[in-house]
Amino acid sequence: MEDTKHIKISEFNYPLPDERIAKFPLAERDRSKLLVYRHGEVSEDVFTSLPSYLEPGELMVFNNTKVIQARLHFRKETGALIEVFCLEPVCPNDYALNFQQTGRCSWLCLIGNLKKWKEGTLRRTIEVKGRPVVLSATRGACRGTSHWIDFAWEDYTVTFADVLEAAGELPIPPYLNRETQDSDKETYQTVYSKIKGSVAAPTAGLHFTDSVLAALDKREIDREELTLHVGAGTFKPVKSEEIEGHEMHTEYISVGRRTIEKLIAHEGKAIAVGTTSVRTLESLYYIGVLVSRNPAANQEELHVHQWMPYEEKHELSPVEALRHILDYLDRHGMEALHTSTQIIIAPGYEYKIVRKIVTNFHQPQSTLLLLVSAFVKGDWKKIYDFALRHDFRFLSYGDSSLLIP
Fold first, then answer.
1. Hey, how many other C-beta atoms are within 10 angstroms of the C-beta on 2?
2. DSSP 97-137
3. Which one of 78, 234, 307, 389 has the largest count of C-beta atoms within 10 Å of its C-beta?
4. Rounded to the nearest 5°, which phi and psi values hold at 122?
5. What is the DSSP letter of 330?
6. Which residues contact residue 3 at a Cβ distance below 8 angstroms, ignoring those fewer than 6 apart?
7. Cα(316)–Cα(320) distance, rounded to whole angstroms?
8. Parallel/antiparallel/unpaired status of strands 65-67 and 195-198
9. pLDDT tens, position by position, 358-370
């Protein structure tokens, strides 16, 4: 573990000119370039060819989270514009329940222009279902870099989901350096997004279309879904010289019984679409370890903390770990596991479940680049040098890659 903790993030840098960052997606999602890394060799193709690189009978796992319109703007009587960015629900703390709340709810939020909002309640009138509704936001305690915000509105036929739909703005990544446009409401969601809760898209999935999914089915690739709600921490830069000083953000995951059963049927092996699916699938192994040690644990106690994978050698096989989770669901009469993960995947990490990854090209000196490097055994520079030389488009709206170590 010490070797991993002392990795210097400066060793994971590369030149990324602004013009290589894709500001908008291609008109046809699946016409993006596909970099294929297979056993150390790198080649170029188009995303529609993805199914041909996979073996019939493999299991591909997608993150079905849906990006919410998490940015709310209020204007003070002084004219100051305050942005309230909803990060995670706290009262109630279940995403689905919170979105169903009528009249009031509370979230942890980032505040833009905080110095202009010392105290008091912010209000704005919004139109929901053709009716005016007054939405208020009251600032509570500071929690690290975020604040507890109590939202209230007087119309009890209106849910918080309705409020966000009517007044919220989709939070596109900060590195795009542009305002959100109406087109982003469609292009910044995957075609299979279902479960509201993310403040950033699982962008590897943005390349998939119904025709590519149909081609996967024709190729007899098994498909399954899970949910990891992507937090704003995904954009949090590593500011410490060594990664030991970087605190990974917590993200909330939900995995259904059927997905666990499918993974067991596929001998605990999967193709992950995106780093969020990677983090969830790999976390499942350690959740299984935690259940094996404490079968009576509640779901909150099954949280995977940042350094757990590196602290000791774990003897369970992936299938054994998954069976422990399935037994846990059976004992509690549950159809899905709901917990959280803070896992950091960096060189020195041993992958347990993920065998192939579909992913975009990530920011220099980011934890996502560490994850890729761990997967390709340090060969990330060869991949990124090829992408830069061959005019690949980078980051959220950029091109894709298939990694087969």
1. 8
2. HHHH-BSEEEEEEEEETGGG--SSEEEEEEEETTEEEEEEE
3. 234
4. -90, 145
5. H
6. 348
7. 6
8. parallel
9. 999 999 999 999 9
Better pLDDT: 174 or 259: 259
Phi, psi (deg, nearest 5) at residue 11: -80, -5
Residue 198: φ, ψ to 5°: -85, 150
Phi, psi of 342 (to 5 degrees): -130, 20
Residues linked to residue 271 through DSSP beta bridges, in sequence order: 60, 356
- Compute the half-sphere exposure of residue 9: CA atoms within 13 Å on the CB side of its CA: 17
pLDDT digits (tens, 9 = 90+) for 272-329: 999 999 999 999 999 999 999 999 999 999 999 999 999 988 899 999 999 999 999 9
Dihedral class, residue 201 (left if φ above 0, else alpha if ψ from -120 to 50, else beta):
beta
Q: With the C-alpha atoms ordered 224, 227, 231, 237, is the resulting torsion angle positive or negative?
A: negative
Predicted confidence (pLDDT) per residue in 6-20, tens digit: 999 999 999 999 999
72-90 residue pLDDT tens? 999 998 889 999 999 999 9
The mean pLDDT value of the chain amounts to: 95
- What domains does the chain contain, in order, with CATH numbers? 2-66+186-404 (3.40.1780.10), 70-169 (2.40.10)
In the chain, the percentage of residues whose pLDDT exceeds 70 is 100
The pLDDT value recorded for residue 2 is: 67
Going by pLDDT thresholds of 50, 70 and 90, the confidence category of residue 1 is low
DSSP symbol at 182 = T
For 187-213, give one letter per residue: b (16+ CB within 10 A) or e. bbbbebbebbbbbbbbbbbbbbbeebb
Q: What is the token pair recorded at 262? A: 């499918």
**CA angle in degrees (0–180, nearest 5) for 323-281-218:** 95
Residue 131 CB neighbours (<10 A): 10
Q: Between 275-293 and 367-375, two packed helices, what is the crossing angle to 10 degrees?
A: 80
Enter the pTM of the model: 0.94
Coil, helix or strand for 331?
A: helix
- Looking at this protein, which amino acid is placed at residue 175? Y
What is the spatial distance between Cα 263 and Cα 266, in angstroms, rounded to a whole number?
A: 5
Distance separating alpha carbons of residues 217 and 172, to the nearest angstrom: 31
> Between helices 275-293 and 257-265, what is the axis angle to 10°?
90
